[in-house]
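SUBJECT: A protein chain and its fold
Encoding: whole-number codes for local backbone shapes
Chain under study, with its fold:
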Amino acid sequence: MPTSSIVELTEALRCLPGVGPKSAQRMAYHLLQHDREGAQRLEKALGRALCVVHRCRRCNTWTELELCECCASPHRDSSLLCVVETPVDLNMMEQTHAYNGLYYVLMGRISPLDGLGARQLGLEALLSRALDGVVKEVVLATNFTNEGEATAHYLSEMLKAHAISVTRIARGVPVGGELEFVDSGTLAQALRERRRLVEI
């Protein structure tokens, strides 16, 4: 039988996304048996992050400073504001090197089943940011899930009511993808969002 401390550690590890009881138990025993030094690093890093990391006052992502690196940069295009669901989504957008505007991170999405509505997402802060007189276009980059689509629709209606230009990132066949391996929903959307080729 595991001791109360091991049970407590296992239960604590279950708070991580995708970690069930068996995985949490394996992690707990691995840390105790094979990597106590790693466990101490994890404890120290987690404790420090909890103390120093907070929300950026402009874009709502995580940072250690008053403004995150993107918001503080004078080289970003402040007329563009990209709305994403999570800081991970922001990181993915940055990895493309195809966008040089600023961001707003919702820290979630509208999901009635999870009790998350517009009020819980604090959309007043986003609206205030979009109406700052500098933003000319809001790019909606929420995920293409039912909740992400509902969120994009809600935001589009909210922003258009204030005469703000709103765009949505496109969907379609991935770069390097072969049609025989693409699901029918993605292929149908790619057909609907087709564009005319530039004539040379």
Q: What stands out?
A: The two ends are 74 Å apart (CA to CA). The mean pLDDT is 91.
